[in-house]
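So, is this right?
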Amino acid sequence: MEVRKGYKQAEFGVIPEEWIECRFEDVMTGFSSGQTPYRAVESYYRGDIPWITSGELNYNVITDTIEKITIEGVRAANLKMIPKGTFLFAITGLEAAGTRGSCAITGIEATTNQSCMALYPIKNVLITPYLYHYYIRYGNELAFRYCQGTKQQSYTGGIAKKLPIIVPNTIEEQITIATALSDTDALISSLEKLIEKKRAIKQGAMQELLKPKEGWEVKNLGEIANVNMGQSPLSEYYNKGGIGLPLIQGNADIENRKTIIRTYTSVVTKKGKIGDTIMSVRAPVGEISKATFDCCLGRGVCAIGYKNEFLFHYLIYFEKSWAKFSTGSTFDSVNSMQVKELEIPIPISNNEQTRIATILSDMDAEITALEQKLAKYKQIKQGMMQELLTGRIRLIDVQ
């Protein structure tokens, strides 16, 4: 592949000619990992000194820890205090997708266990924020290429020193790149917190709006709604080529409370209509979604048809209460009678039902819009990392 003028080929792609491709040991002053104080001495874990484990490295700034230890625990395990602002990455269990590539920066002075490695960049050569974003981008690839072990994939200190890194040759450009990516992280974080807040507000609204009030009555679900229990067609009628109706068998066919298409069936046993509430009746019971298309119902679900969305929201509110109705030694399940006999407190007035459903549906729509915005920001962040960490886009004046 032809490399454009001013650029050169590096291990992870094409980079500016003046950028440095080297090993971690070339730009670090030190590498250190921690230890676990002897668990049998319970008093070691009753202190106030933060102790970080690899499970807490979640592409974040760590400002608190799950466990804290005493000064006696620090001394017994010969632990080193890690300064605030230190880069940490996981060095054991790298075969697991949740751990492979995980890293963090310390927002407090802390100690660590043996599964975390602290890196100390050479001053005026490499800054920690740039290292942090570089590892977020390339940590997975580095683990796949360089970690070792048969049962558990890990880094040793020697391997960590030999890991490749691409470094802009000026601190100014490193700061510019790290700042742009950190600002995007802050935007993503603020949006995640807003979504969490909106979900909590919606939960509170459900508890208030769906609580029985004067003028409500209690009805069995089967009295007020059409309940259609599923029945799976024979497997030979399943068709992935799009012939027949989409088959909804259980939670695997649900995403974000909406039905998704994975498999079609050419023979339809029980049918659900677009707009029906779909409820799982097996393993686990009671999870609620909405049919976004006409579908065939497998035996793991039922369809509930009602004149407005009040029942959809009430059944979401009731979701976790199904456990007390579930039966079965192999699979938790409920039968047709149990579903139809479920007692539903409901406003007598259809207008009140619609008003409650509209409020909750509007809140759902707002949360969905925010989630879509969050997904877009995360996609933009991925693109930014790809462009900025390879120098395809430069944020400084290049002579």
